[in-house]
Amino acid sequence: MSATTSRPARRFRAGGAVRYVLLSLGAVAFLFPFYYMIVGSLRGTTVGDLSAAVPSGLTGDNYAAVNSAISLGRSLLNSGIMTIGVLICTLVFGVLAGYALAQLRFRGKGAVFAALLLVQMIPFQLLTLPLYVLVVRDYGLGDNYLGMILPFAINSTAVFLFRQFFAQMPQSLFEAARIDGASELRILWRIALPMARPAVLTALLLTFIGPWNEFLWPFLVTKNADMQPLAVSLASFLSNLQGTVANPAGALLAGACVLAFPAVVLFLLFQRHFTSTDIDSGVKG
Amino acid sequence: MSVNLDAAPGAVRTSGPAPRRKDRGLSRVGALFVSPYVLFIVVVFAVPLVYTVWISFHRFYFTAPGTKIDSPWVGLSNYRDVFTDPVVGQAFLNILIFLVINVPLTVGLSLVLATALNAKIRGRSFFRAAFYVPYVTASVALVAVWQFLFGSDGFVNHLLGSHAPDPSWLVNSHLAMPMIAVFVTWKQLGFFVMLYLASLQNVGKELYEASAMDGAGRVRQFFSVTVPGVRPATTLVVIYAIITGANLFSEPYLLTGGGGPDHSSTSPVLLMYQKGIEQGHPDFAAALGVVLVAFVMIVSLAARKLTERGD
């Protein structure tokens, strides 16, 4: 903070110490449950007492146990199909829509943009009941990947991010390409998209955590255990299958680790693309 | 998750009429590019919204795909059922409890952490990542750990010894809803820390210098410069909290075992699920959904008025 530069050095150091204490306390509060989750998932007997925070007698049995109870591989595959389906739709149709909203002129553009903003304000869960009636009962898409993907297919926040990014690009660049006779699709593919790579990464990361972590919708749509994504099968393990394994708490935490791992790793890998400004523009709308 | 219309950068520039072009074909390309997204909005948002309202005025039953049965018009009967059900009142009260705990806690903690993070300090990216990790992690995974941390025989109760609450955190009718509010605060705090961090960039440095000249200490500066300076972000936090509260499902369902002791942590969406799908009264659930949308709009407007009132 710039104010510190004009203040005496002693004050500066005291302020710095307070800063670190605050940040460290925060970091412990945020990370301890994750540490506890990992250690608990690796212990032979996982109990809730204080010793559970100390790694000892580590074993992979819990992972095997949760795998036998809810078939992790199958659940992960379902989560993957659902998430990749959403990512592909968002990338293909979202980039097209974002580009059109930013750089093209067409009838009803204002209305589409207003709808984009409005959609982000509607609490999605409110729509789950009518969507359930439509998708599962009327279209018969229960226990079907299409039914799982449909409500998330095009992520509106990502469309908004694409639009913001394309809107910042100089119009003259596109005009020049148009004069050279390039089609809009070609301009988008050859000029706009390569320049928008950071926005694409951010948008994909934002999009990924939605369907990967989503619980309510796939929970409603999938009754067949073979079709359930990991969040749903882990929740059913949490509420009624714990009795089937020797160390239920450990198995549950092992499942939680598997569910948490991909999103956390992706976030850490792409962290530097994921700046506060992106988040700012992602939530403004 | 977005609300702040007027603050959208570039919104003015491109949503107005673009420079005239001779080629009218261009406009057809734009409409073509945007059409899948429009179709998506119609299928996933517009149709279900209208359908909910329609269902809420009819006696409605689930049917197997392809079968048709009558859904007679029943007027406001479903709404009467919603308003006379005591559990509905409890669910809305629970959302208010959630907001009363979640909003001040989120605003206070994220603003303090963002202020502390707003400097060139060692380990900045580590702290940022640490704060953000719960936000990117699935609720279901985090609920599993919290159940284990706050269970009757859990880590926290072992720490507290005889001071542990009885009945324990998640099964205590006074603590179940506050626990959900604290859980959600914790899970989403990183997002708001980043939001405030971005917002702090817009607070003029000269304001800090001027107030320092006037002899304001750090704490005074925080309340007189920082807090008013990030007001737009605070409005966003409040509106986001209301939307989160209206959406609550996994936490009451999983963390407090299906809505907690005596419905003390039941949320409207959980109730929609229980009434609509478990008990087969989708018409009741639809009416509840419409009431919930109205509730969200009224509370958001009120909150917006409150947080945006002049200094």
TrEMBL record, chain A:
Matching PROSITE patterns: ABC_TM1
Membrane-crossing ranges are 20-38, 81-101, 113-133, 145-166, 187-209, 249-270
Q: Which UniProt keywords apply?
A: Cell membrane, Membrane, Transmembrane, Transmembrane helix, Transport
Where is it localised?
Answer: Cell membrane
User: One Pfam family name from the record?
Assistant: BPD_transp_1
User: Residues in domain ABC transmembrane type-1?
Assistant: 76-270
Q: Can you name the source organism?
A: Streptomyces castrisilvae
Q: rRNA-binding among the record's keywords?
A: no
The superkingdom listed in its UniProt entry is Bacteria
InterPro entries per the UniProt record, alphabetical: MetI-like (IPR000515), MetI-like_sf (IPR035906)
Would the keyword Transport turn up in this protein's UniProt record?
yes
Q: Which protein, by its recorded name, is this?
A: Carbohydrate ABC transporter permease
Main location, first listed in the record: membrane
Specify the protein's topology with respect to the membrane: Multi-pass membrane protein
The record's comment on protein family reads: Belongs to the binding-protein-dependent transport system permease family.
Automatic annotation (TrEMBL), chain B:
Domain ABC transmembrane type-1: from-to ranges: 92-303
Q: Where is this region: Disordered?
A: 1-23
Q: Indicate whether Transcription appears among the record's keywords.
A: no
Indicate the principal place this protein occupies in or around the cell.
membrane
Bilayer topology reads:
Multi-pass membrane protein
The membrane-spanning stretches of this chain are 29-51, 91-117, 129-149, 175-198, 219-243, 284-303
SUPFAM superfamilies to which the protein is assigned, alphabetical: MetI-like
Entry's InterPro entries? ABC_transporter_permease, MetI-like, MetI-like_sf
The entry assigns this protein to a family as follows: Belongs to the binding-protein-dependent transport system permease family.
UniProt-listed PANTHER family = ABC TRANSPORTER PERMEASE PROTEIN, DIACETYLCHITOBIOSE UPTAKE SYSTEM PERMEASE PROTEIN NGCF
Q: What is this protein called?
A: Sugar ABC transporter permease
